């Protein structure tokens, strides 16, 4: 299989910053790109992951069905905007009935590392933990193991081994609507056994005061790993999910170089503020075209639909430096 994560991705979805705007990040004018009812079975399609695939795009989508079961469906797209999704969830091949039994799956992330696509998601195994699977071709999907003990969410792999090990950001949690949460990372020689856990960063004031969690696969830059992450504020009406960014050390990614003090994007549009869970902007994937610096972020709106936002790497890093509070 050829390398599927080239640094040049000239065909990622893109729209220039609206005239008159000075925001470092801006929304796609035709958001949401995926409506809740794109497929007959779906109640909602959100918090989903897109990757480059054979010159086009493939993805793993969180589709909650009309029984309100949370599961992952496969999708393909020529342009990264218009998607065709399977009506039925992915069937994960697994030899082990103990862990293979389905409880629920949600919030997938997908990354190409070395020879295949790895998929991580929040997997129900006596509570939420991080499921790890892989596919070579988006045809057969293999379930490998749960990386960690319950309770954990937001398992996000780095796109290459660091110092010879796979590295995964994750967020220990509880079995419910966790009112706390810091970002840690864990390391593994083989994707099976995870250890050497490190604290990366904890909650801070305002938009990131209740809990935080890694979002898309971190993007490697000469200055560090760019990590988008969500942050949660508890208002008198419930949680508000915004997102920001941080820059992590290349060799010791638990060291935070910069971290955004203000949010980058908070729920403000109708499709972010109104839906099954109001006031949620939850990023799970980003595509990066290094030659132009274009970054396209996929995020879920109000736990109901999928949307896009855009920014430029140089502007984002300048903004991060000027608006950092580590
Ligand atoms: C988190 C996850 C996300 C969801 C968010 C807001 O705990 O379940 O999938 O987007 O809550 O409901």
Describe this structure in words.
6% of the residues lie in helices and 47% in strands. The protein has helices at residues 97-100, 270-273, 313-322; strands at 26-27, 42-53, 56-65, 70-77, 83-85, 92-93, 105-113, 116-124, 128-135, 141-146, 152-157, 166-172, 183-188, 195-201, 211-214, 219-221, 224-235, 238-248, 256-259, 281-289, 294-301, 305-312. It is globular, with a radius of gyration of 18 Å. Bound molecules: beta-D-mannopyranose.
Helix content: under 10%
> Which small compounds were modeled alongside the protein?
beta-D-mannopyranose
Strand order of the largest sheet: 6-10-9-8-7
Rg over CA atoms = 18 Å
Largest sheet: 5 strands, mixed
Low-confidence stretches: none
| Mean model confidence by pLDDT | 97
- How far is the first residue's CA from the last residue's CA? 40 Å
What sort of overall outline do the alpha carbons produce when their principal axes are compared?
globular
Order of helices and strands: EEEEEEHEEEEEEEEEEEEEHEEEH
Number of strands: 22
Q: Structural class, from helix and strand content?
A: mainly beta
Beta-strand residue percentage: over 45%
- Count of helix runs: 3
Based on the model shown, name its key terms:
mainly beta; 5-stranded antiparallel β-sheet; 3 helices; 6% helix; globular
Sum this structure up briefly.
This protein is 6% helix and 47% strand. It is mainly beta and 326 residues long. Bound molecules: beta-D-mannopyranose.
């Amino acid at each position: 299989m050829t390398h599927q994560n080239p640094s040049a991705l000239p065909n990622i979805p893109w729209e220039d910053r609206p005239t008159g705007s000075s925001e470092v990040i801006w929304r796609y004018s035709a958001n949401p790109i995926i409506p809740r009812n794109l497929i007959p079975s779906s109640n909602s399609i959100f918090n989903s992951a897109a990757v480059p695939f054979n010159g086009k795009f493939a993805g793993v989508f969180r589709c909650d069905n009309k029984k309100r079961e949370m599961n992952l469906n496969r999708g393909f797209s020529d342009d990264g905007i218009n998607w065709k999704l399977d009506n039925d969830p992915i069937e994960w091949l697994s030899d082990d009935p103990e862990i293979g039994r389905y409880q629920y799956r949600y919030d997938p992330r997908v990354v190409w590392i070395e020879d295949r696509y790895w998929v991580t998601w929040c997997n129900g195994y006596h509570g939420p933990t991080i499921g790890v699977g892989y596919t070579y071709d988006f045809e057969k999907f293999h379930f490998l193991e749960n990386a960690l003990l319950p309770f954990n969410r937001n398992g996000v792999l780095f796109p290459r081994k660091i110092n010879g090990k796979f590295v995964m950001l994750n967020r220990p949690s509880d079995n419910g609507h966790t009112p706390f949460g810091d970002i840690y990372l864990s390391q593994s020689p083989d994707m099976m056994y995870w250890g050497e856990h490190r604290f990366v960063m904890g909650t801070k004031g305002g938009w990131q005061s209740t809990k935080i969690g890694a979002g898309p696969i971190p993007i490697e830059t000469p200055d560090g790993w760019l990590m988008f992450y969500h942050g949660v504020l508890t208002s008198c009406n419930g949680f508000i999910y915004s997102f920001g960014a941080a820059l992590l050390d290349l060799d010791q990614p638990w060291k935070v170089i910069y971290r955004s003090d203000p949010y980058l994007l908070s729920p403000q549009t109708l499709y972010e503020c109104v839906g099954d869970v109001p006031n949620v902007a939850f990023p799970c994937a980003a595509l990066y075209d290094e030659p132009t610096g274009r970054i396209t972020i996929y995020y879920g709106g109000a736990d109901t639909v999928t949307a896009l936002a855009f920014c430029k790497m140089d502007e984002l890093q300048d903004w991060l430096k000027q608006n950092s509070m580590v």
